[in-house]
Amino acid sequence: MASDLPRKPAAPPEGPGPRSAPAEPSYPHDAGAAGSDPPPSDRAPTRLWSPRGPAQAPPPGPPPDGPGATVPWSPGPHPPAPPGRRAQEGTPGRARALVRAALDHPLWQHPLWKRAGAALRAAFQRQPRGAGPRPPLRAQLARWGKGLAIALACLLAAAVIAFFLIVRHYERDLPTTAELKNYSPPQVTRFLARDGTVIGELFVERRTLVPVTEIPPVMSLAALAAEDARFYKHDGLNYLGMLRALIVNLRSAEARQGGSTITQQVVKNVLLTHERTIDRKMRELLLARRIEQELTKDQILELYLNHIYFGHGRYGVEEAARFYFGKSVRQVTLAEAALLAGIVKGPSIYSPRVNKERAEKRRAFVLGQMREKRFLPAAQIDAALAEPIRLAPEPEHLDELAPEVLAEAERALRKAVGPDARYGGYTVVTSIDPKMQAAARAAVRQNLDAYAARHGLVAPFTRAKGDPAPFQGAPKDAGRVYLGAVTGADDARGTLAVRVGAAQGSVDLRKERRYNPRGLPPSRFAEVGKVLRVRFEGDPEAGKLRLDLGPQGALIAIDARTREIVALAGGYEGARGGLDRASRALRQPGSTFKAIVYGYGIHSRKLTAASMLETDPAALDGYRPGNYDESEGQSPKRLREALAHSVNVAAVSALRDVGPEAVVAWARELGITSKLGADLSLALGSYEVTPREMAAAYATFAAGGAYQEPVLVTKITGPRGEALPLPARPPPRPVMTAAEAYLTTDLLTSVVKVGTAKQALSLRRPIAGKTGTTNDARDAWFVGYSTDIACAVWTGFDDATTLGAREVGSSAALPAFIAFMEKAHAGRPATDFPEPLGIVRLPIDPASGMEAFPGQEGAVEEVFLEGTEPTGVAVPDPAAIGQGILDLFKTQ
Questions:
Q1: Distances from the Cα of 487 to the Cαs of 378, 406, 474, 527, 529, in angstroms?
Q2: How far is CA 585 from CA 418, 443, 684, 785, 854, in A?
Q3: Alpha-carbon distance 475 to 472, whole Å?
Q4: Angstrom distance (rounded) from CA 669 to CA 663
Q5: Of 517, 592, 620, 685, which has the highest C-beta tally within 10 A?
Q6: What local confidence, expressed as pLDDT, does residue 737 receive?
Q7: d(CA 787, CA 564)
Q8: What is the pLDDT of residues 63-111, one digit of tens each?
Q9: Burial class (CB in 10 A: 0-12, 13-18, 19+), 24
Q10: Is 227 a catalytic residue?
């Protein structure tokens, strides 16, 4: 079928002469049309060949409008495209539109970008081609290559500027690296006994810094093998490692590998946080590069090894080595170093105290890495692989040994170094003797347990007729002791329900071993309705209670020569933060103060050991105390006897003779700083003092009359090993002569030999001391000393409840003194108090205190200061003389 489109006329025959004009008119898309050829963009496509057959003519109708109308090419027949479709779907047109839109963005309004954009648009815009052949392919590729090069250059410039802006953005608030140069993270402050034993630690993070020069090479190499083998080769960022970690994580769809170098880990752990954000990672990368420029590799490695976490609250290689192997990191072997290095990846997983088998596999991996990197000879690594894991025993909890010491030593540290104490790293050496400290705590507990046994303060508790009434009302004071009634028990939880007035609380019996030594369940511990002494732990509304059934005790021991505190126990429990009753509890000293009264009498020369003192209360004017033993008021007694048997009236009589004001002033010289009143009750210890003050005063007698303030902290070393200055310790000051001190000591030995403390004879060594009991037995004391140690023991309730009618110093305090002194003097020879010059010994008449007449029977030897001997001689009793004569004649 003929096409409706006009056909091109046949070509004219060849021949010479000019070409004749066509007989039919030409069309715009006719190749032989008159005039210039249309541009390529305005020419209709010409179908030369199709795999499906001859070209099909377009449907009848007018030709496309306009000179630029085109018909899309197609391998087969299809309807012509609607106008504008090529501009919407054509790939080249769409690309040009996107590029033009991007280049027209306001970001590129800078003149430089405008010029670059103009060049880019010119490169991508398709220029109309005039008549003539199509440009060669090479020229088209060159033009497109030029445009692509300009585009890449622009993109590169934009990337550089964007990178610069991003770096500037994150650099604005980057932390400074200056703190790394003066790295001072929280460290452990250790408190040592006098022999170097650790008795306590204070820390926020348990860490001890060690210079990298002191860390053995095996430890450093093991850490590098486990975490960053190329540490000494890269500049802070391991790009290959980061790429490898990225690939592994993408394959596994989870974060299985990290590409962080040791430098990056130092940045993250020291300067930044552990949050997983792009901001933190960008800062980490920037800081890692900066650190590498400011610090040496060894400095960075030192930071890393001292900062990383090894589990169980241990930071840094030193604390890790101490915890796992009981030694310094300076002493670890290759196998131990590899084990430590392997823990870092996951302390809760690879700790040998958690899973020994897993830790051993991790150690083998680290050693394998060391072999692969050729860090050490293969034979050395094989030997380490064969070495079994040997862990040190887990450290015991140290707070129970001497928590009172730690509290005072910490105060001394803060006073010496100020706010820097919170950063730790200090070593505080105390004067505590560990064996004596343990003996002191044991003595206090044994003494209080014996009291509890005497008074039925050990479970089980049953109701009795004499039980006091429980507290009524709303409890408000957390420090007060209340009487509460048992209302129930929960054996599963181990708690005892107790009602205190309007409040209901519970006692956790797992914390009450003192009163439940057999571990009875709550249902068997106390009968419902039983009234028990309890106190609140913190706010009463919280309802947490502790039992307060028995009294408390305190013991302090001082080296008589150096005046260093060798033992300090402030209570039964020995808990951190508890009350140090030995140093801070103000209690009435009772008759132990009589030694100070009589000591001043000897010092002032107003009294001698043979002075006769009044024992009848009726003989006193005004203040008239009673005697503990009423039989002691029959007749005057010599001072030695009155002291040995603790006659109250005699002590008041002596104080009246020497003057209360003078005794108060002298007590100040002996180191008693607590408030004292200048009245006659002072003789019986009515004014409160601390056990520490009494021990220091008695130590003056033991030391020959020179007082020196007791000391607990003897040395403080800083984080870098430097010795820090301590407050200047006042030198010893003479309070009495050596002869006066010896005579006072000799008088106090009578208390042990024939007086109220005869139990102390079991120590089988010279002991001087004095018992003390206050009114209603609210306080029980014994203060005494040997040639080596002065010791004070106190027993009583914190709320001053009576200990009981039968309790006195010899029963409630002296046993603790004996138990402690026996342990403290183990292995020491018994030594007598040395007698100085200025001492005179004379036989005296025991009834009058006068020098005994020649041949007097019953005369006793007494000790005097030179110049204070009796001036008169006792007069024989006439009746005794007559009886003697009669006896003489009878014998004849």
A1: 71, 39, 17, 9, 6
A2: 27, 19, 19, 21, 53
A3: 8
A4: 10
A5: 592
A6: 97
A7: 14
A8: 444 444 444 444 444 444 444 443 344 444 544 554 455 556 555 565 6
A9: exposed
A10: yes
Query: Catalytic one among 591, 611, 686, 811?
Result: 591
Contact 4, 61 (CB under 8 A): no
- Who contacts 720 (Cβ-Cβ below 8 Å, separation ≥6)? none
Residues 440-452: what's their mean pLDDT?
A: 96
Contact 436, 199 (CB under 8 A): no
CB 726 within 8 A of CB 718: no
d(CA 713, CA 693): 17
Task: Output the CA angle 208-210-212, nearest 5 degrees.
Answer: 150
Paired tokens of 764: 């089988």
Contacts of 575 (CB under 8 A, 6+ apart): 399, 400, 403
The backbone region for 290, taken as left when phi is positive above 0, alpha when psi lies in -120 to 50, beta otherwise, is alpha
pLDDT-derived band at 129 (thresholds 50, 70, 90) equals low
Contacts of 50 (CB under 8 A, 6+ apart): 75, 76
Assign 481 to helix, strand or coil.
strand
DSSP bridge partners of 206: 314
Task: Tell me how many degrees the CA angle 149-155-156 measures, rounded to the nearest 5.
Answer: 85
Distance in angstroms (rounded) separating the CA atoms of residues 192 and 295? 35
What digits encode the pLDDT tens for the residues 366-414?
A: 999 999 989 999 999 999 999 999 999 877 655 568 899 998 999 999 9
Contact 354, 342 (CB under 8 A): no
Question: 590: Cβ–Cβ under 8 A, 6 or more apart, which residues?
Answer: 684, 685, 772, 773, 774, 779, 780, 781, 809
- How far apart (Å, rounded) are the C-alpha atoms in residues 514 and 507? 13
Backbone angles phi, psi at 666, to 5 degrees: -70, -35
Spatial contact of 722 and 793, defined as CB atoms under 8 Å apart: no
Computed over its alpha carbons, how large is the radius of gyration of the chain? Answer: 50
Find all residues with CB under 8 Å of 215, minimum gap 6, and list them: 302, 305, 317, 329, 330
**DSSP classification of residue 31:** T
Question: Which residue(s) pair with 430 in the sheet?
Answer: 713
The residue assigned the tokens 């994580």 is: 249
Please list, residue by residue across 363-390, b when 16 or more beta carbons sit within 10 angstroms of its beta carbon and e when fewer do: bbbbbebbbeeebbeeeebeebbeeeee
Burial of 621: CB neighbours in 10 Å, binned 0-12, 13-18, 19+? exposed
Q: Which helix (H) or strand (E) holds 384?
A: helix 378-386
Pairing mode of beta strands 189-192, 427-430: parallel
Angle between helices 594-603 and 648-658 (to 10 degrees): 40
Kind of pairing, strands 552-559 and 544-547? Answer: unpaired
Q: Sheet holding 713-717: strands in order across?
A: 198-202, 189-192, 427-430, 713-717, 723-724
- Cis amide linkage into residue 352, ω under 30° from 0: no
Q: Are 566 and 699 in contact (CB under 8 A)?
A: no
Question: Dihedral of CA 445/449/455/460: which sign?
Answer: positive
Give yes or no for a contact between 332 and 219, defined as CB atoms under 8 angstroms apart: yes
The one-letter amino acid at 545: L
Neighbours of 13 (CB within 10 A): 5
Cα(622)–Cα(683) distance, rounded to whole angstroms? 14
| Alpha helices in 659-808, H assignment, sequence order | 660-669, 691-702, 738-753
Distance CA 32, CA 54 (A): 22
Distance CA 34, CA 441 (A): 125
